[in-house]
Specification:
Elements: E1 8-9, E2 15-16, H1 25-35, E3 37-47, E4 50-61, H2 64-69, H3 96-121
Antiparallel strand pairs: 1-2, 3-4
Length: 122
């Protein structure tokens, strides 16, 4: 008498015998998009133990729903990719006295630098 493993039910409702996984590309793609996959790698270019260049590569492959579940939603806020995304709001008009108060220290520092250069040149 041989004992057979119990059947396995997949997300699609299809019953398969245990130990036999589907091998077609559609099922693999569905599984990857449903769960997501992260591919990470670093490329380093060195010459005589001196690092010249480092590239850090990170690739996330997932469905939109899976990406949202893990907190990735940058495409919703990018004005190039979404009509609902709004460009950053420019600040409104500012109080002229506040603008002048912020400008005074910069002008004073610039005047001091010019005096230093004039003394150096002269």
């Amino acid at each position: 008498m041989s004992v057979q493993p119990p059947p396995v039910v997949q997300n699609s409702g299809q019953v398969l015998p245990a130990g036999h996984e589907p091998a077609n590309l559609g099922d693999i793609l569905e599984r990857v998009l449903d769960r997501g996959i992260v591919i990470a790698g670093d490329i380093r270019v060195s010459l005589l133990d001196i690092e010249l260049l480092t590239l850090k590569l990170r690739l996330v492959i997932a469905s939109v729903d899976t990406a949202r579940q893990i907190g990735i939603d940058w495409w919703e806020h990018d004005p190039w990719l979404s009509s609902r995304a709004r460009p950053p709001v420019e600040p409104g008009p500012r109080d002229p006295e506040q603008v002048e108060a912020e400008r005074r220290p910069r002008v004073a520092r610039e005047a001091a630098r010019r005096e230093e250069w004039d003394e150096f040149d002269g």
